[in-house]
Amino acid sequence: MSFTATFLAEANEVIARTDAGAIERAVAELAALRARRGRLFILGVGGSAGNASHAVNDFRKLVGIEAYAPTDNVSELTARTNDEGWETTFSAWLEVSRLRKDDAILVFSVGGGDLERNVSPNLVRAVQYAKQVGATVLGVVGRDGGYTARMADVAVIIPTVNDAHVTPHTEAFQAVVWHCIVSHPSLKTRSTKWESVATPQPA
User: Fold this and answer.
1) How many CB atoms are closer than 10 A to CB 44?
2) 51 near 59, Cβ under 8 Å?
3) Region 3-189: CATH code
4) How far apart are CA 108 and CA 178, in angstroms?
5) How many C-beta neighbours within 10 Å does residue 41 have?
6) How far apart are alpha carbons 48 and 64 in whole angstroms?
7) Which among 69, 52, 88 has a CA at the least distance from the CA of 177?
8) Where are the domains of the chain?
9) 128-186 pLDDT per residue, tens
10) How far is Cα of residue 137 from the mean position of the Cα atoms in its chain?
11) Could you give the CA distance from residue 109 to residue 166 in angstroms, rounded to a whole number?
């Protein structure tokens, strides 16, 4: 098989092995979040930060949940990194945002954070802070999900089908998972544009 055929076959396996029940539990948590008028803070680093920004748009526009991503404010992010260190960039941001028990955080990450290996320590500190104030913790993470998977109220684990492709598959399927969530009838309140203008099929 070519590399491309192999990569796509791996993607098929990721889909087949993803826990649909975990996604449904995340939907239920988010529906409850909206019902209590809580806010959603979406956290990610690297490619997952880009996914967080896109997801904020979808949760706000399609689902009607007030949502934010700390990485959308590059001035504050870099100031905090420069002045206080990377580890507290997200937790300090959440503190100023007055994260409370009615709110939730959603972590997009390949590894979910690991203090011992100093990988995404800011995600770990953010999860710790969220648990401290009683906020809901959700995650869409790869491998075993590290700290996020262990501590989250609901974690959707993107299955590892090839150790060489953990990052691309995880970051790609974060998008599949959140698009599934915002399309769910328990959450979706507005049609996406192309579906709303689709030409009706003749009877």
Assistant:
1) 26
2) no
3) 3.40.50.10490
4) 10
5) 24
6) 22
7) 52
8) 3-189
9) 999 999 999 999 999 776 999 999 999 999 999 999 999 999 999 999 999 999 999 99
10) 10
11) 11
H or E element at residue 155: strand 154-158
Distances (CA, A) of 143 to 16, 54, 125: 16, 23, 20
**pLDDT (tens digit per residue) in 21-61:** 999 999 999 999 999 999 999 999 999 999 999 999 999 99
- Phi, psi at residue 154, to the nearest 5°? -140, 130
- Location of structure tokens 């599934």: 180
Contact between 19 and 157 (Cβ < 8 Å): yes
Smallest CA-to-CA distance from 169 within 2, 3, 15 is with 15
Q: Which residues pair with 137 in a beta bridge?
A: 105
Alpha helices in 146-201 (DSSP H): 146-151, 166-183, 193-196
CA angle 53, 26, 9 (to 5 degrees): 75
Identify the three-state secondary structure at position 26: helix
121-122-123-128 Cα dihedral, nearest 10 degrees: 90
H or E stretch at 4: helix 3-17
Quick check: helix, strand or coil at residue 138?
A: strand
Q: Edge-to-edge strand order for the sheet containing 104-109?
A: 67-68, 40-44, 104-109, 136-142, 154-158
Tokens (6 digits) for 168: 């691309």
Cβ-based burial of 25 (10 A; exposed 0-12, middle 13-18, buried ≥19):
middle
